[in-house]
Amino acid sequence: MSGATSVERIRLLQTRRARDQTGTFYADGVRFLVAAVDAGAPIEAVVVAPRLLKSAVGQMLARRLRMRGVREIRVGADELERLSPSREPQGVGIVVRQRWESLATVAAAHAACWLAIEEVRSPGNLGTLLRTTEAVGASGLVALSRSVDPFDPGAIRATMGALFTRRFARGSPAELSAWARRHEVVVVGASADAAIDYRQVSYARPVVLVLGGERKGMSPAARRACDVVVRIPMVGRTDSLNLAVAGSVLLYEVWSQRHPPGGLT
Amino acid sequence: MSGATSVERIRLLQTRRARDQTGTFYADGVRFLVAAVDAGAPIEAVVVAPRLLKSAVGQMLARRLRMRGVREIRVGADELERLSPSREPQGVGIVVRQRWESLATVAAAHAACWLAIEEVRSPGNLGTLLRTTEAVGASGLVALSRSVDPFDPGAIRATMGALFTRRFARGSPAELSAWARRHEVVVVGASADAAIDYRQVSYARPVVLVLGGERKGMSPAARRACDVVVRIPMVGRTDSLNLAVAGSVLLYEVWSQRHPPGGLT
Fold first, then answer.
1. The CATH number fitting domain A3-97, selected from 3.30.1330.30, 3.40.50.2300, 3.40.190.10, 3.40.50.10490
2. Does A248 touch chain B if contact means CB atoms closer than 8 Å?
C-alpha cells in the first residue's frame, strides 16, 4: 500500500462506512497518542507530519511505536490536516482498532457501572458521556442500536482521550435485559416522566444506566428492559436536560453513593 | 427601514459585534418563540416566512405579537434560512433585547444560586449550562469577562429555549467578591486541584458557583474571589470533565442539598 493510498484510506475513516468496514478509527493529536499508548490500545498505524510534530513526547512515542513494528506513515503538513480538520494540528495521528465485545461474553464485575445508550444525535454528547464514565471509573458503553457510534470524529474529539480505557459492547434492549438478569445487574432507565427521584434508588449493586436519545427518550423495548425508571428533578418550565448532562448527573450519583464524602477515597 | 435591510441587519446578529452594538440577539424556531413569550422577553421583531410556518401555535403567537405592536418582518423561505442555518427551519424567528444587570444592583434572594463563568471556548457548553441553571431553578449567569457571550448563536441553540428566564449580570472577579460579601453570598470555585470534595460544602446559604474556562481553569483573580474552592472527584487518568458537565454536577449538588430526596418538593 503506497503512502498516498494509505492517506486516502485514513481520510475515509471520517465516514461511518469506512470505520465499519475496516473496524478501525482515526484520532489525532498528542493527547490521544499518549492516552492510547497508556491504555495499551491496538494502534495499527501512526501518521506523522515531521514538520508539525514539535512535541518531544509525541516524537518519542511515535518512534517507540515504530520500533515495536507499528506502521508509520510520513505525510506532509497539508496531508495531515486533510485527515482531520483541526485548528492546531500537532503533527501526529493514530489509526486504532475498534474493540467491541459481545454483551453475552461481558462479565459484570463487582460494583460495575455501565452506560447503555439507545440513540445519540450529537456525537459530542456521546463523547462527553464517555469522558464522564472514565472520570467515575465506570466500565464502558453498551450501544443499544447501530446508530450509536463512539468512533465518530465528533465523539472522539469530545472524549478528550477518554475512550481507549473504555469497554464497548453492543446488544439489543432484550439482550441487555437477559445479560443483566444473568449477572444480577440492576437496569436503571432515565426518563423525564418517571415517578422516582434518581436519588431514591440504591446503586450499591452492579448497575447499568439506560439513556434514550436527545429527542424521544427511551423506546418501549428499552423501558421493558429496565428494573426501575428514574427522573432527574427539574423545576420551572424545563422539560429536559442536555443528554450528556443528564447521563453525567446519574453517573455521579452512582459514584457518590459508592464513595460517600469524607470517606477514604 | 426596508424589509431587505432589516433582514441583512438581523443576519449580522450572528456576529458578536452587531449583537453588542444593537444590544439584541436573534433566536429561531417555534420553541424559542414560545419560551420568549412565556417569559415576557423583550421581543423587538418577529421574522415570519409564511410558507414555512406550519405550527399553529407559532402562527398564533406571531399574530398576537403583531397585534401588540411588535414589528413583523415577512421574508421568503430562503431569506429566513440565511438568518440562521437550521436543518429544519420552522418559519419563524425573533429579535430579542439582551437584558444585562449590573452586579452592583443585583439583590441576592433567599436561597439564590448564581453561576459565574470566566471564559468559555465552546458556546455550546455555555448554552448547556444555562439550560441546567433553569432546570435547577438557579437565578442566572454572572459573566466575569467580556468573552462570555450567552447570546452567541451556538450558545442560544444549546439552551433549547432556557435563556429567556435567566438573569444576566456582568462584573469582574473583584466586583463579584464585593457583591458576595455585601449580600452574604458564599463564593464557591471549582478546580480539579482543590482539596475539598464538592459534597463536603454546605450550600444552604445563597451561593455563586465560579467556573474558569475549558483549558485553564480559574484565574488567580477569580480564585481570590472564592470563599472555598472545591473539586469534583475523578478516578483513573482523567484530569478534567467537560465544562458543562462539571458545572451541572455542581448545580445539581446545590439543588440536591436544598431538596433532599423524599422531602416535599
1. 3.30.1330.30
2. yes
